[in-house]
């Protein structure tokens, strides 16, 4: 059966895929795959009150490196918890200065703390302290009007601007400059915010969580306006959040997604079903974050793309990290789909088969639903899906055994896992229906049931022989290094007497095969060896032979240097040795060095011996510095790690800019008045 007997339609280009308007699928040069995105996954539980039972943690702040500042109201202390070393360290004892510290916020140079103390029996006075993060000296103190309380704090970690969430007054948020001066603005008018409980920042945008029962919402304050960003009453009606949810905690990630937790009480023994809910920046989706279950008292999203969750109920801090994954559709496995229509232009056409070029990793699927009709816009009910088809006949079912129609409607669904996706490279549809049955006597086609069975049975042979004939027709592709499949590359390389190294990439092998004729002409020469090394490393090496250091100089000093080089590289008289010198960054590891050694050994003249040396990146007398090759000047860098080193010309300095008593206090020289 020849391909010339068939007509076919195909989808295999970006333009083709874009016309299908794929849902949750990503279009690339290779084809269609599941769209990737970022999800929060559990990272670690970094702090447990059980480990530090003496602490009564009222609030916490997180720095840019993930270290926790814990505010202990019982002892009026601030502790620093190193999440890497799992070490708790006292950094500030505020007993005698503060009565009842309640809130804490972090910026690069300042730690802000809210203190409350009684003025009368029924009146509380609140004030905000700004402490230098480097020596814990007080920078400024701001007292709020009598009876006004600070509900929550948030600070811009870069410039130190402070935002205080207030329980009363015309402004729901008070904004303070790093110097302590209040920035007057009408931007944060309280409006219908009755019970504010949390505040979060994203650049210059401020979000406030209002927890008035049955009217919970998140309000967003932009530069010139404010709006209700999340309305929990509406979400309850849509069934997107539980009816009993008590919103608590507020955080914004680097993409603008809003996270809100749940602090409702659960009866003892009931299954944990309290989640964090994520609202996308476009407000189109609200979905639970399955990486965490439990009550939420406070959430902080820091610059390392980690979400820190404080659960005051269990006295623990959990961390979720942002990780690239294939996007889920609600609570299902990651999946995506598209629909398309093929037009044969012939009414009552009987379609032959589908051919898919695809890659299907373990635990992934491609489902193809199809319907055949003479109506372009109205497909009939789809037949049972084809699972992972590669070369499949288009058949009907018991009700419609031989469907016919001008249009073939396809719905293709790709199903993956969080870390794997199927790849659909092309879809080809062949028509009209032809089979080997037509070569048999007519008696085999008289009975409809046996005819259908024979047609399906013979399709096995048709597929095998059809594919074989197709490969023979296009056999030239197996002899082209640019297009041959990776599994045939080593086979094709044997035609050129290339001994394949397992460490070579497919691209390196393709390049070697394409340039093999020129390299064979240069084989055994200095130029050939240099070209081969350049092909695999990207840079040309230096090659030194004995004749280059022979003593032909009349200058005694030069003669002495040449003698030292002969002794170092050639033991004075190794006439047939040569050296290949590689630049400092030409290879990455010992395996690559061994591969290059094998390449050189295969190309060098039989009577010679080759040695390889990787040069160091320096300019130093008597230390093999080759101008323009390894004589590179690099900026000194400080590297702190296990077995850390401090390189040349590094200066450790205090980053504190402002005046400190008994420390760098020379006015006009190293102290700024602010």
Automatic annotation (TrEMBL):
It comes from the Bacteria. Pfam families: Tail_P2_I (PF09684). Coiled coil: none annotated. InterPro entries: 6-blade_b-propeller_TolB-like (IPR011042), Tail_protein_I (IPR006521), Unchr_phage_tail-like (IPR011748). This is Phage tail protein.
């Amino acid at each position: 059966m020849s391909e010339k007997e068939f007509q076919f339609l195909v989808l295999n280009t970006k333009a083709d895929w874009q016309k299908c308007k794929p849902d949750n699928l990503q279009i690339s040069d290779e084809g269609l795959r599941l769209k990737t995105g970022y999800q929060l996954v559990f990272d670690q539980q970094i702090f447990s009150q059980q480990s530090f039972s003496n602490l009564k943690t009222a609030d916490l702040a997180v720095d840019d490196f993930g270290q926790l500042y814990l505010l202990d109201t019982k002892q009026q202390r601030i502790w620093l918890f190193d999440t890497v070393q799992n070490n708790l360290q006292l950094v500030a004892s505020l007993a005698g200065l503060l009565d009842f510290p309640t809130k804490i916020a972090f910026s690069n140079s300042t730690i802000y703390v809210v203190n409350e103390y009684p003025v009368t029996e029924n009146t509380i006075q609140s004030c905000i302290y700004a402490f230098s993060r480097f020596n814990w000296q007080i920078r400024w103190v701001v007292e709020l009007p009598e009876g006004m309380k600070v509900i929550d704090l948030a600070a811009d970690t870069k410039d130190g601007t402070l935002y205080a969430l207030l329980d009363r007054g015309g402004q729901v948020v008070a904004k303070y400059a790093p110097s302590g001066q209040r920035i007057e603005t009408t931007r944060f008018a309280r409006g219908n915010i009755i019970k504010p409980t949390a505040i979060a920042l994203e650049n210059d945008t401020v979000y406030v969580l209002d927890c008035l029962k049955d009217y919970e919402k998140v309000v967003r304050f932009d530069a010139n306006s404010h709006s209700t960003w999340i309305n929990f009453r509406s979400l309850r009606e849509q069934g997107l959040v539980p009816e009993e949810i008590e919103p608590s905690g507020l955080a914004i990630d680097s993409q603008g997604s809003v996270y809100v937790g749940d602090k409702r009480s659960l009866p003892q023994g009931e299954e944990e079903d309290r989640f964090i809910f994520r609202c996308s920046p476009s407000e189109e989706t609200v979905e639970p974050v399955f990486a965490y279950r439990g009550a939420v008292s406070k959430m902080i999203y820091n610059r390392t793309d980690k979400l820190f969750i404080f659960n005051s109920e269990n006295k623990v801090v959990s961390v979720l990290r942002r990780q690239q994954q294939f996007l889920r559709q609600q609570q299902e496995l990651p999946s995506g789909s598209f629909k398309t229509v093929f037009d044969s232009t012939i009414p009552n056409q009987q379609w032959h088969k589908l051919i898919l070029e695809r890659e299907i990793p373990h635990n992934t699927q491609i489902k193809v639903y199809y319907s055949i009709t003479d109506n372009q816009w109205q497909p009939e009910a789809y037949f049972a899906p084809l699972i992972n088809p590669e070369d499949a006949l288009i058949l009907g079912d018991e009700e419609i055994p031989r469907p016919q129609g001008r249009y073939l409607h396809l719905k293709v669904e790709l199903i993956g896992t969080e870390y794997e996706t199927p790849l659909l490279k092309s879809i080809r549809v062949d028509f009209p229906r032809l089979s080997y049955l037509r070569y048999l006597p007519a008696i085999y086609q008289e009975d409809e049931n046996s005819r259908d069975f024979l047609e399906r049975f013979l399709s096995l042979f048709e597929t095998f022989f059809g594919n074989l004939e197709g490969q023979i027709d296009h056999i030239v592709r197996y002899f082209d290094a640019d297009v041959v499949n990776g599994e045939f590359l080593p086979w094709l390389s044997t035609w050129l007497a290339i001994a394949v190294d397992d460490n070579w990439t497919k691209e390196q092998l393709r390049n070697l095969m394409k340039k093999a004729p020129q390299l064979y002409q240069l084989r055994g020469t200095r130029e050939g060896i240099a070209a081969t090394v350049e092909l695999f490393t990207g840079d040309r090496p230096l090659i030194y032979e004995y004749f280059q250091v022979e003593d032909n100089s009349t200058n005694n000093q030069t003669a002495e240097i040449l003698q030292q080089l002969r002794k170092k590289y050639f033991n004075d008289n190794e006439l047939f040795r040569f050296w290949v010198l590689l630049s400092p960054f030409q290879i990455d590891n010992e395996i690559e060095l061994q591969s290059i050694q094998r390449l050189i050994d295969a190309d060098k003249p039989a009577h010679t011996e080759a040695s390889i040396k990787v040069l160091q990146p320096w300019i130093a007398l008597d230390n093999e510095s080759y101008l323009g090759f390894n004589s590179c000047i690099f900026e000194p860098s400080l590297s702190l790690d296990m077995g850390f080193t401090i390189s040349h010309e590094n200066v450790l300095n205090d980053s504190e800019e402002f005046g400190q008593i008994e420390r760098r206090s020379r006015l006009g020289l190293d102290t700024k008045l602010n």
